[in-house]
Design a protein that fits this description.
It is built from 13 helices and twelve strands. It is α/β, with parallel strands linked by helices. It has one domain: Alkaline Phosphatase, subunit A (3-Layer(aba) Sandwich), CATH 3.40.720.10. A hairpin with a 5-residue loop joins strand 3 and strand 4. It holds the Pfam family DUF1501.
């Protein structure tokens, strides 16, 4: 491609004029993020704690994830949805995991999985968007304009690469008043099959003496082209060589948010951690958990995806010193109602389990399983305030004072993380 044609393409496509958007606040390319691994800041933070937040959008059915298989009321409330005790992966004499979660059962046996039971917040809201806003801002009493990670970014005057989302859009979680995390797209550049890769690659090559905005636009194209290869490598790394653990069918993410490429997102997180980038907090997601109808089949697909992606990531992280500094937290905006609905599904509920995974985890149960006979108008009563979970993570993983970022955090952290 000659220089004149290239310049006309950049201008005609609007990319040269929109170069600021490609490199603007809250947006960086993966190549730029990986290059930050060579900075002095990255070297100083290499052996510090790293946090990976996994959001399950739609409201995960906690009762069919961590199953009270010994409770008769579980079977009475949802006769068509309840799992027979013999199919449940028993964790103790009362609770077990969904049959699709064999990998997490193994991590439980290895003491690398902690489960916090009955997590919620006061005066629960059954709106997906308000409830997720509460979890991500850690402000259940009053609407907030900043996320709890964003407030940590503000307080530490952190750079944009300090908190990174591999989700389609930047979640409120990473937005502060003066600082914001980065949203790194993993989708790369999609071009028609008839366009030769050499032509596209030529667009991303810098030219001498070209205007700064045009040069930035070309660099953005180069990042997108490089992302294609990186994503392919990440997807291959996320695939298990064991045919019995082949990728599951997918459930389309709903309008409640999230995506359905969790394994790819976590593989990219793993690459960044192993490269030594200075990121302390990562945000990834899996959507589709709004299971109002025909829940069993769709929920099992989602839980199998979750299980495979989490276990592959945790196993990979266990292989390096820097990976052993990583803690994973898995949460959803709310659980489902105890009683099944008429469509063999469940409607919006309240409390649910939170999973904590990694080498720094003190495995086991924390909190108390909600009583299925002591309900709030048909919903579970939370036994643990979610702010205690996130506050513990801020304290133990980010080595910061939780009370600075989370209103209502009590004095003591929970003991699910090792010193």
């Amino acid at each position: 491609m000659d220089a004149l044609t290239r310049r006309r393409f950049l201008i005609a496509s609007g990319v040269a004029g929109g170069g600021a958007l490609a490199a603007g606040v809250g947006t960086i390319g993966l190549a730029q993020l990986l290059r930050s691994a060579g900075s002095e800041q990255a070297a100083a933070l290499r052996n510090t704690g790293k946090l990976v937040l996994v959001t399950l959008y739609g409201g995960n059915d906690g009762l069919n994830t961590v199953i009270p298989y010994a409770d008769r009321d579980y079977y009475t409330a949802r006769p068509e949805l309840a799992y027979p005790a013999e199919k449940v992966l028993h964790l103790d004499e009362a609770l077990g995991l969904n049959p699709m979660m064999g990998g997490l059962k193994r991590l439980w046996a290895q003491k690398r999985l902690a489960i916090v039971l009955g997590v919620g917040y006061p005066k629960p809201d059954r709106s997906h968007f308000r409830s997720m806003d509460i979890w991500q801002t850690a402000s259940p009493d009053n609407p907030a304009t900043t996320g709890w990670v964003g407030r940590w970014l503000d307080d530490t005057n952190a750079g944009v690469e300090s908190a990174v989302s591999f989700e389609p859009v930047l979640p409120p979680l990473l937005v502060g008043r003066t600082r914001v995390g980065a949203c790194v797209s993993y989708r790369g550049l999609s071009v028609p099959s008839w366009v030769e890769s050499s032509v596209v690659a030529a667009i991303g090559k810098s030219e001498p003496n070209e205007p700064p905005m045009q040069a930035r636009a070309a660099a953005a194209y180069a990042d997108l082209i490089n992302m294609e290869q990186v994503v392919r490598e990440a997807e291959q790394a996320a695939q298990s060589p064991d045919p019995s653990h082949a990728p599951s069918d997918t459930v389309p993410a709903t309008g409640t948010g999230g995506d359905n490429a969790l394994a790819t997102q976590l593989a990219l997180v793993a690459r960044c951690i192993e490269a030594g980038v200075p990121t302390r907090v990562y945000s990834v997601s899996l959507g589709g958990f709004d299971t109002h109808a025909q829940e069993i089949a769709g929920h099992e697909i989602l839980l199998k995806q979750l299980d495979q992606a989490l276990t592959a990531f945790v196993d990979r992280m266990a292989g390096t010193d820097v990976g052993q500094q990583v803690t994973v937290v898995v949460y959803s905006e709310f659980g489902r109602r105890v009683r099944a609905n008429a469509s063999d599904g469940t409607d919006h509920g309240t409390a649910g389990p939170v999973f904590i995974l990694g080498a720094k985890v003190a495995g086991g149960f924390y909190g108390e399983q909600p009583n299925l006979r002591d309900l709030d108008e048909g919903d579970l009563k939370a036994t643990v305030d979610f702010r205690q979970v996130f506050g513990t993570v801020i304290d133990s993983v980010l080595a910061a004072d939780p009370s600075r970022y989370i209103d209502g955090f009590q004095t003591d952290s929970m003991p699910f993380l090792l010193p």
